[in-house]
Amino acid sequence: MSANNASDLPTVSNRLAFNAMRNWKERLIEAILLGAATISVLTTLGIVYVLVSESYSFFQNVSIIDFLTDTQWTPLFDDAHFGIMVLISGTLVSSGVALLLAIPMGTIIAIYLSEFANPKVREMAKPILELLGGIPTIVFGYFALLVVTPILQFFLPSLPGFSLLSAGIVMGIMIVPYIASLSEDAMRAVPMSMREGAYAMGSTKLYTAIHVVVPAAISGLAASYILGISRAVGETMILAVAAGMQPNLTWNPMEPAATITSFIVQVALGDLPHGSIGYQTIFAAGLTLLMITLVFNILGQWLRAKYRENY
Amino acid sequence: MKPLTTEQIRAVIAKGKFRDNLFKAVGVFCLAFALLVIVALIADMLIKGSERFTLDFFLNFASRRATQAGILSAWVGSLLVMLVTALAAVPLGVAAGLYLEEYAKRNWITNIIEINITNLAAVPSIVYGLLALGIFVYQFGFGQSILSAGLTLALLILPIIIVATREAIRAIPAMIREGSMAVGATRWQTCRYHIVPYAMPGILTGVIIGLARAIGETAPIITIGALTFIAFLPPVPFSEIDGGATAGMFDWVMSPFTVMPIQIFNWTSRPDPAFEVNAAAAGFVLMAMVLSMNAVAIYLRYKMRKNIKW
């Protein structure tokens, strides 16, 4: 090694300088990555800020009592009424129909896949369910209006062209994959020894599934139902297409009605000037929607904490 | 209690087996029903829309006459919005996932970020539309543009990409990190040259599933005020626009637009049944896009599970 080359080698201080630089670069990169992770928190803050600030302007003009108790919803008429119950009733009825279909069906599919089906069927079924869950909701809306409604009208001739019933049924089909897949994960996490114990006592498969596996997985099942409820309450396009958009305070699924979400779509389709009362109305409606999903999510987390079983 | 005779025991067993089989039948029926819905959906749109599957349908703008209406502005709009979404969501999502798995210390900041990501996944998509209407359209002044729509959908699918990235990273064994660190790599070098490349298939799966979800989203885009009738395309970079001026590199980003789901919504909600045919054909095209993206993701995941053995 010649003297010339030796002088090219970095001196100790050079090396330390390099290390310090490396360190500085490392810190910068960590800060950038943290920044990216914070975007999600900023999104939440943004949602809360937008909804609350616009709703605040809205409640300057409309009293909160009228908002909660009025039985008419005519925000764009001259004689404006802002009774959110009208929209909430549509949302609850359609979600109720959807869940009456989705919870039993999703649970049965989950029990079947986790306890009865052989691995081949399960490997096939999971992607199919995933595909069903990936279908765009506007396509489901088309399906509800132009396929399911005519079929239902064949059995129920009095059913109008737009109804909460057909929208709710299709919404239920849309939710089945979420419930089935999450419930199945929860049931598969139940340790094998518990099933073996039940079989050793002479239980049949079905008895074991219902009396051992389901109770053991109940917190996971509850979580999947809560997710299903959130999906149903927040679903928009199926209702906007198939349930009609007339505000209608009703508890009868055979009628057309607007929901919180389809009202927002209806207003957004028109051309509302920024800052008008109509514009603020959709944010008040959105805040109500967010509150409803929040209540269910808190309930879900509480249920999960209460019934969580550790094995 | 009297002891059971052999016959009685057999009867009990037979009853139990019968119930098992009955339940199995119900389970198979429910699964078959789900499959039937997919098949019915696709078949209905394919048959109803079949007369529209011509080149003209893909190359025509929307029109008042159903037979002449096409989906040109819709599919171009969808592709451009997806481009913006991917450019925004992928770097942010991967960076956030990397931070949470490789850098984050267990403290309250990390906790808040994690709880927040879980909760964002449960927020209805139309609420993202309201966020975008308030922030992107009016506060930032992006207007009802491709940029607003792309960023909105990026925020919507960010949790999906973050979760997929984290799961992919978590599957990489610690020895890979230790090996890299042992030869003097910094944390970032370890991430850059080992963690991210090895997690790539998993990340890609998440990205595709996220984009498949975004391309079918309608509600948030309607909320920001996308138009339903567009008879022009966004300006091509450096092309000539009316008045002799040249379009800038990024002028298309600020252009008004429409997307596939909105076009379908528009056609579905018209009373004239001739437009049902258009809705069916466009719905089939959208389904084909979404399903093929999902199929690629499922295939990737399957392949990945088979190939990688640490």
Topology:
The complex is a heterodimer of chains A (311) and B (310).
Chain A: H1 3-8, H2 12-61, H3 64-69, H4 84-116, H5 119-134, H6 137-155, H7 164-188, H8 192-200, H9 205-216, H10 218-234, H11 237-242, H12 260-269, H13 277-307
Helix pairs in contact in A: 2-13, 4-7, 4-10, 5-7, 6-7, 7-10, 8-9, 10-13, 12-13
Chain B: H1 6-49, H2 55-59, H3 72-103, H4 108-120, H5 125-139, H6 146-170, H7 174-182, H8 187-216, H9 219-223, H10 260-268, H11 274-307
Description:
The complex is a heterodimer of chains A (311) and B (310). Chain A is mainly α and 311 residues long. Chain A folds into 2 domains: 3-60; 85-310, Orthogonal Bundle (MetI-like fold). Chain A is 77% helix and 0% strand. Chain A has 13 helices and no strands. The longest helix of chain A has 50 residues, at 12-61. The model of chain A has no long low-confidence stretch (mean pLDDT 87). With 310 residues, chain B is an all-alpha fold. Chain B has 2 domains: 6-52; 55-305, MetI-like fold. Chain B contains 11 helices and no strands. Chain B has helices at 6-49, 55-59, 72-103, 108-120, 125-139, 146-170, 174-182, 187-216, 219-223, 260-268, 274-307. In chain B, helix 3 packs antiparallel against helix 8 (187-216). The longest helix of chain B has 44 residues, at 6-49. The radius of gyration of chain B is 26 Å and the shape is flat. The relative contact order of chain B is 0.14. The interface between A and B is large, with 83 and 86 residues.
The N- to C-terminal Cα distance of chain A equals 65 Å
Number of helical runs of chain A? 13
CATH fold descriptor of the largest domain in chain A? MetI-like fold
> How large a portion of the residues of chain B is in β-strands, by DSSP E?
under 5%
- Tell me the number of structural domains of chain B: 2
CATH homologous superfamily annotation of the largest domain in chain B: MetI-like
